[in-house]
Design the sequence.
């Protein structure tokens, strides 16, 4: 595995207690939705939380957080603030209709700037929404940022589980602790309380068992999740009493607990030449 | 976590001008010739070069005429080291697993 350009310089972020990467092997599993709602659920118990959108090519955080307009970089302080979160995304800088056509080294530079050039202030948690796959953004962050751990998002069906396994394996290879697997869109709960498993059942739990990592929980599917994302007010904020919001609060508590107990292992010793 | 995943260097240093010494968390001591590490550089360019048939008429470049030496060896995340060489080559990321597999001690060499 090679760096996406230039020597990987280790970044020190002493003001950020926990940096959590939210990842998936596959796109479309709701990773950005999970990252946004997890950050908000964490912020409900710990007010100093940031959300960094590491998807340079397809940023979702601006729409989900209700910042649709491109902001004036000369007059706006980054990270921006919305719903009590500190936020940074490429989508604040580039109009939605404009494609970011960058090779890896430019992605690397942008992500390092997001982490080092912005005044995040003291944070208890910085949630990083990764793009799908195991590419440049993942490599940059695992090589340079002091990640506390990774949450792997999957949906129950095999096609997502196959790719989630790859994401999991990547974090293992780069020795970033995997906090666990969360299964999104697990089931739909009707008004009669009956659960319908639209995409199969138990896939996320099975993958967690096979991989020997904790299963962090199931997030139900709810049409209001998409509505809230498009309206810029995630479901944890807009419908805090919904089953989905409750599932996110449980997930946040589990993640916080895992971060307390996880052994990050020692830093590698420096080499004197 | 498997045993290989938990293996880390507890000490790593230059051993004379020609060698690198790593003491691992399982007590194993690995000694490597710098040239051996360079010959097994895992970067895409070096891998590609190794797969090509040897050209008997290849002309050495000026930087190949001076002795090769490591300049620095910073850690990469918690899983690898990068070696910066005196000829400017610096794109090889040596994972801990790769370093362990390259060990030249008699015990490992006989495997």
Sequence:
């Amino acid at each position: 595995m090679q760096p996406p350009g230039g020597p990987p310089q280790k970044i020190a972020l002493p003001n950020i207690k926990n940096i959590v990467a939210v990842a998936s092997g596959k796109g479309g599993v709701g990773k950005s939705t999970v990252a946004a709602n997890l950050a908000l659920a964490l912020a409900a118990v710990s007010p100093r939380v940031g959300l960094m959108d590491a998807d340079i090519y397809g940023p979702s955080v601006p729409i989900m957080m209700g910042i649709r307009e491109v902001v004036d970089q000369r007059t706006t302080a980054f990270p921006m603030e919305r719903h009590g979160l500190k936020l940074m995304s490429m989508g604040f800088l580039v109009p939605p209709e404009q494609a970011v056509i960058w090779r890896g080294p430019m992605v690397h530079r942008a992500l390092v700037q997001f982490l080092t050039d912005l005044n995040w202030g003291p944070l208890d948690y910085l949630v990083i929404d990764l793009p799908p796959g195991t590419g440049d953004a993942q490599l940059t962050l695992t090589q340079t940022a002091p990640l506390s751990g990774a949450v792997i998002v999957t949906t129950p069906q095999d096609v997502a589980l196959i790719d989630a396994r790859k994401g999991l394996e990547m974090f293992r290879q780069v020795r970033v602790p995997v906090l666990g697997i969360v299964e999104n869109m697990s089931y739909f709960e009707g008004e009669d309380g009956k659960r319908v498993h639209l995409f199969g059942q138990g896939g996320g739990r099975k993958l967690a068992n096979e991989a020997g990592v904790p299963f962090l929980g199931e997030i139900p599917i709810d049409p209001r999740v998409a509505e809230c994302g498009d309206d810029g007010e995630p479901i944890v904020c807009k419908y805090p009493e919904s089953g989905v919001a409750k599932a996110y609060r449980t997930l946040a508590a589990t993640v916080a607990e895992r971060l307390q107990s996880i052994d990050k292992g020692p830093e590698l010793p420096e080499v004197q030449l | 976590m498997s045993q290989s995943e938990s293996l880390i260097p507890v000490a790593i240093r230059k051993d004379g001008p020609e060698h690198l010494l790593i003491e691992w968390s399982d007590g194993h001591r690995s000694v490597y010739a710098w040239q051996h590490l360079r010959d097994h550089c895992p970067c895409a360019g070096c891998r590609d070069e190794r797969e090509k048939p040897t050209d008997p008429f290849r002309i050495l470049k000026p930087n190949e005429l001076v002795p090769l030496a490591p300049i620095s060896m910073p850690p990469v995340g918690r899983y690898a080291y990068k070696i910066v060489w005196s000829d400017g080559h610096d794109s090889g990321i040596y994972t801990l697993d790769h370093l362990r597999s390259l060990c030249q001690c008699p015990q490992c060499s006989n495997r």
